[in-house]
Amino acid sequence: xxxxxxxxxxxxxxxxxxxxxxxxxxxxxxxxxxxxxxxxxxxxxxxxxxxxxxxxxxxxxxxxxxxxxxxxxxxxxxxxxxxxxxxxxxxxxxxxxxxxxxxxxxxxxxxxxxxxxxxxxxxxxxxxxxxxxxxxxxxxxxxxxxxxxxxxxxxxxxxxxxxxxxxxxxxxxxxxxxxxxxxxxxxxxxxxxxxxxxxxxxxxxxxxxxxxxxxxxxxxxxxxxxxxxxxxxxxxxxxxxxxxxxxxxxxxxxxxxxxxxxxxxxxxxxxxxxxxxxxxxxxxxxxxxxxxxxxxxxxxxxxxxxxxxxxxxxxxxxxxxxxxxxxxxxxxxxxxxxxxxxxxxxxxxxxxxxxxxxxxxxxxxxxxxxxxxxxxxxxxxxxx
Length: 384
Fold this sequence. Notes:
With about 375 residues, the chain is α+β, with helices and mostly antiparallel strands.
């Protein structure tokens, strides 16, 4: 029998994350977004409470929690402020390749540093290569006891505050997916240039920049896994493992928008009664709730499959695609319920709608998720 109830420990984690969001994120989210403030103090508090580094094993200083635990916590962080959730999420994204395929020495050194408070960033996307990862042009050439990296990465979350980067680069031009290798690059490496902070539509507290590598020397011991040609698998595993978390951010933001709209619908009156009692409004709120419930179930299923050690490419794509799309729909409807106030930046609805859009773009666009879903399902319909 399927059990949809949280365990006592999971409920405690949810309560802790919700209390943190209520006290530290929601009161500050508007100022962080308006002024582009990187929420370092809140990040430190979240780490101290055990709300970050969830799936990094305890042996390296992490919490050693399950993927389902991570999704439960991150829904509350997304509800508090999607920008904050993204800031903390990108560090975990950069850690996934190491957790999955790093050497023991790499795990001990770099994962431990993250758990002690450092920030890492995931450098895959380039100006001419986003969804088509194989099209990246950044190169890494072996030269004695180090590799020399040249190239440019774009839209890198957390870049301006990162202590180290996971970088995907080509080590063999003639070998397709097998030409890609992952590297750990220190942020203070000579020749590494972090660009200006991007002026974004939403989630302005999440620092996003370009990163350029001008003949950057990287020690051979920083080749992730110690073997060339394994970067593609590292990157894809990182996407599979991070998409349920991204889905939880999107549905958490949507849930926050719904809760705010629901309260407003009971406070605002027209034609002699609260607007909730107008069927057109109550139906919108009901649809919001159904979409959020569905998104949560998909995210939980994907996380549970990862916890069982199963391949979750399809389930992670379902979760990310659906949560991203309903997140945009729910936050847009929230603006509509708030009416003119929803269009004002003095109310949270506009900020949540702006923050929702990126979930349909980063971590694999909604269109790419549909391609993955179609490809994975079609495998079952091939002729014998």
